[in-house]
Amino acid sequence: MAAPMTNESRSARNPRRATGRLGRFVLAFTLASATGFFATEARAQDYAAAGQHFDAAQEAFAAGKFELAAKEYQAAFDITKESTLLQSIGESWQRAGNAPKALTAYKAYIQAAPQAPDRAAIEERIKAIESAQAQPPQAAGQASQVQGQTSQAPGQTSQAPGQASQAPGQT
Hints:
By secondary structure, this protein is mainly α. 69% of the residues lie in helices and 0% in strands. The longest helix has 24 residues.
């Protein structure tokens, strides 16, 4: 009497059956990838990285390291595409004294968030930077003072942009 057939012995005898299983596995893997099954974990890791960049930016801004803050905010923005980060990038570049990069970030913010509640204030910053850049060279000392100004009243403590908001990806 012959031994009962197992799945392995059936597959060995019928290569078509083995290929069918492999094909179903490949199809299932492809569908899982295409539907984002594996992308969910990657996005969570990306948002965790964005949160780390955001935290590093907040710390750098509070320490007066504005160029580093701008770069960290930019790294967070590159991951999340969260438009409010553009305002923080602009302010960081403005405080770092890099007017062209501040203008680029502020203008991108206005374009990305046309209904932003702080739109008027950002447009004022844009005008102030542009007028400072248009001044003749002898007024360069005054222009650099305008570049570092914000809407902060004298005597207020420096607060990192977006500090009241949450890190990207948090609700």
